[in-house]
Design a protein that fits this description.
By secondary structure, the protein is mainly alpha-helical. The protein has one domain. Helices cover about 65% and strands about 0% of the residues. The longest helix has about 35 residues. The radius of gyration is 19 Å and the shape is globular. It starts with 15 loop residues before the first helix and ends in a 6-residue tail after the last helix. The relative contact order is 0.16.
């Protein structure tokens, strides 16, 4: 069982008293990441790149500053994490375009019910700062590297703390700090992975498999560091593949 007590001997005061509530340090960075991300692509051309940089750097600094309230947020470097990460990366790339997205499935369902063909979904604009800033290549590469580093170093601890440490245990018991990380709970195992899949509507099957694999690592070894490593490996491999092949849908 991990400890969630404030590392200081004196009782927390001010904003630190909120961090002493176990749910807050585990959910706040994730919620802030989503909130800032909701402004991407809005307001001005290229805002998707600037806002991604803001949320990645800002939330990364937040995670670092509250790490004392997240004792489970420690990297592990076991080979199992790398292997799982590589397998998930292969599945993510290999299944791309072979499974209907949730939006497409919704459209098919509406057609069966109403008999009317749904409007085709708007094509997603690929994440390609090199093309957007082709007249300023240094800026384009800067945003691309922030994307790669953010997906590899910020997103893994951010999401693993939220999904695999907090949400998984919370579904099993609202007093989640009483449960060790290696607690096995079938409903939580399935539901957390399903929620993770729904958060990736375009690649929902890959995301569900991803959630199942990462949670299995946590249950197997009793820490989220292995899942963080697997997540980082998956995202880094996919990012390298996207850049090398210029298949920007993977960024």
């Amino acid at each position: 069982m991990d400890s969630h007590s404030n590392p200081k001997a004196t009782p927390p005061a001010g904003w630190q008293q909120w961090l002493a509530i176990p749910e807050v340090p585990r959910a706040l960075p994730f919620a802030l990441f989503l909130l800032i991300g909701s402004f991407q692509g809005k307001g001005f051309a290229g805002s998707e790149y600037w806002m991604y940089a803001v949320k990645t750097i800002g939330v990364g600094l937040l995670l670092w500053s509250i790490r004392g309230w997240l004792p489970e947020m420690k990297w592990s470097f076991r080979i199992e994490g790398v292997v799982v990460g590589l397998v998930i990366a292969g599945l993510w790339i290999g299944l791309d375009g072979k499974i209907p997205s949730l939006d497409e499935l919704w459209g098919m369902g509406r057609k069966l019910i109403t008999g009317k063909a749904p409007e085709p979904p708007k094509p997603e604009v690929p994440w390609n700062p090199l093309e957007f800033y082709k007249d300023a290549p240094l800026l384009g590469w800067t945003f691309l590297m922030i994307r790669v580093l953010g997906r590899s170093l910020v997103v893994p601890p951010l999401e693993e703390v939220f999904y695999r440490s907090f949400l998984y245990r919370y579904f099993a018991n609202p007093k989640f700090t009483e449960l060790p990380l290696n607690t096995w709970h079938l409903v939580s195992f399935v539901s957390t992975s399903a929620v993770f899949g729904l958060s990736h509507p375009g690649q929902w099957v890959q995301a569900i498999l991803c959630g199942l694999a990462f949670q299995a690592l946590v249950v197997r070894f009793g820490r989220i560091g292995d899942a963080m490593l697997a997540h980082a490996t998956t995202n880094l491999v996919i990012s390298i593949y996207a850049i090398a092949t210029r298949q920007w849908q993977f960024t």
